[in-house]
């Protein structure tokens, strides 16, 4: 929720997107929020990159309109390109990961959920994921492995797969930051969020969420909300010849193949590949735990994808997902 009033963001924006123009009073029928709250929310979301604008009709009843043309994904072509995967496409969605988690019992392995804008997109540790409308490559993929499969290191393998795909398309100066960030020229280009579920057949369900910046945000509010240096694909001339649809289709197909390999081989074959992409290998780092900070030298990862650090006493220590944030000194 954006305000203390009852605004369903996904319904509100989806309706406006579908109708292309609506008055405040028309949108008010979709929620219990006041016209003031609706106008305040839509004004703020437009400032954050949603392609809408308002014309004042009378007092608090504005005419809200969608800017056109919109540079949206070609979802028909995408569905053809990603076969045998199946596609769920939403112009506006709360969260692609959450959509798959909530509906996974009725979805097949290999279902891809894609959206142009997410009202409740999130990253690791529940952090808010900021993305203006149609400015990113955002998707979630539902996969599964037999019950009991060791999926340690999966987020690292996904990162390697994505980085390799982007490099194949011509993007250079890429690196990976443990455990789930893709870097371009040392700045964050994308992130990975993996969540688990139990499939109806008892197998281990995996929802792989990916966000990759396609264009840099122009809005200062979004820039200020992002707490680390960031980058985008369109900064690189080699990537400017591809549409978002083409890039998305390519990286998803490569990821599909790599997920099959991971199921057969686990993370061990990817351990050496990680060293080729590791932005902090053999560099001084500081690790922030809940109650302490550790200084040391990064030593790569073990066969399960856990981070290895040689501390100031010379001991090599192991750190797992969710325990630590990694920063260069």
**Biggest sheet: strand arrangement:** 4-5-6-10-9-8-7
Report the principal-axis shape: globular
Radius of gyration: 21 Å
Give the SSE order as H and E letters: HEHHEEHEHEEHEEEEHHHEEEEE
Strand content: 25-35%
Secondary structure tally: strands: 15
Spans where pLDDT lies below 50 across 5 or more residues: none
Structural class label: alpha+beta
Give the terminus-to-terminus CA distance.
Answer: 37 Å
Report the major sheet: 7 strands, mixed
What is the average per-residue confidence, as pLDDT, rounded to a whole number? 89
Count of alpha and pi helical runs: 9
Main attributes of the structure:
329 residues; alpha+beta; 7-stranded mixed sheet; 5-stranded antiparallel sheet; 9 helices; 15 strands; globular
Fold and architecture overview:
The chain is α+β, with helices and mostly antiparallel strands. The protein has helices at 9-19, 24-28, 35-47, 75-81, 96-103, 154-168, 220-225, 244-265, 268-277; strands at 21-23, 52-58, 61-66, 86-93, 111-118, 136-145, 174-177, 181-184, 187-198, 204-213, 284-288, 293-301, 307-311, 316-319, 325-328. The strands form three sheets. A seven-stranded mixed beta sheet has the order 4-5-6-10-9-8-7, sandwiched between helices. It has a five-stranded antiparallel beta sheet with strand order 14-13-12-11-15. Strands 1-3-2 form a three-stranded antiparallel beta sheet. Strand 12 (293-301) and strand 13 (307-311) form a beta hairpin. Helix 6 packs across helix 9. The longest helix has 22 residues, at 244-265. The model has no long low-confidence stretch (mean pLDDT 89).
